[in-house]
Amino acid sequence: MTSIITRHALLRCFVRTRRLISEHRTPKPLCSDRSYATEEVKSPKIYTKTGDKGFSSTFTGERRPKEDHIFEALGNTDELSSAIGLAREFCLDKGHTFTDQLDKIQCILQDVGSNIATPRSSAREIHRNRTKFSPQPITDLETWIDHFTEELPPLTSFILPSGGKSSAALHLARTVCRRAERSVAPIVRSGEADPDVAKFLNRLSDYLFTVARYAALKEAKEEKIYRRPE
């Protein structure tokens, strides 16, 4: 795909250069009959058919079966980003001020996926450098958690997923995050991914729990408390 895009870019550059040379040599009147139609460039197809036999590629070029633990973890982090995206839409409707944090988190999850998709056993130095995961997002999450916690009432009972659509959707994202963390943990233990990736997912589930409670508070929605059935 990269080579296709590069060839199109070179073709456009060549056409424009020839046009500029021609215009410089032959001046044209102010109102010419020149066509302003742009060159047609075909976009690469979304499907590649390379996974039709049940195998896919890591960032290092290694072919593995789609049920491999690497792709299981990638699927879970992708699902997590989608769940956060859905929760974000509910939060936007209610005017919550933390949606920019959700935007940033979705972008960081792309970096998480890049790191997971680069198993250290087959990665060259150039791969490791491009997909290295920074610990800064972990610090950011902790700062945000502390900020929201200051405004929340003390937690004295188990909270059930509730508190309005925004809160419930964030709780759902939290449970997907836990699953993503569980699937990443063995990859990190084997040395195939950066330990900070697992730390980030662990802290992210805490953030999602906290911000779910915060959303319920700001919307004045009641959080359901666990009560033992009689």
UniProtKB/TrEMBL annotation:
Reactions catalysed, as given in the entry: cob(I)alamin-[corrinoid adenosyltransferase] + ATP = apo-[corrinoid adenosyltransferase] + adenosylcob(III)alamin + triphosphate
InterPro entries in the cross-refs: CblAdoTrfase-like, CblAdoTrfase-like_sf, PduO-typ
Xref: SUPFAM superfamilies: Cobalamin adenosyltransferase-like
GO BP annotation list: cobalamin metabolic process
Keywords: ATP-binding, Nucleotide-binding, Transferase
One GO MF term attached to the UniProt entry: corrinoid adenosyltransferase activity
Record-annotated Cobalamin adenosyltransferase-like domain positions: 46-215
Subunit annotation: Homotrimer.
Stated role: Converts cob(I)alamin to adenosylcobalamin (adenosylcob(III)alamin), a coenzyme for methylmalonyl-CoA mutase, therefore participates in the final step of the vitamin B12 conversion. Generates adenosylcobalamin (AdoCbl) and directly delivers the cofactor to MUT in a transfer that is stimulated by ATP-binding to MMAB and gated by MMAA.
Entry-linked PANTHER family: CORRINOID ADENOSYLTRANSFERASE (PTHR12213), CORRINOID ADENOSYLTRANSFERASE MMAB (PTHR12213:SF0)
Family in the record: Belongs to the Cob(I)alamin adenosyltransferase family.
The protein's name in its UniProt record: Corrinoid adenosyltransferase MMAB
Organism: Poecilia reticulata (Guppy)
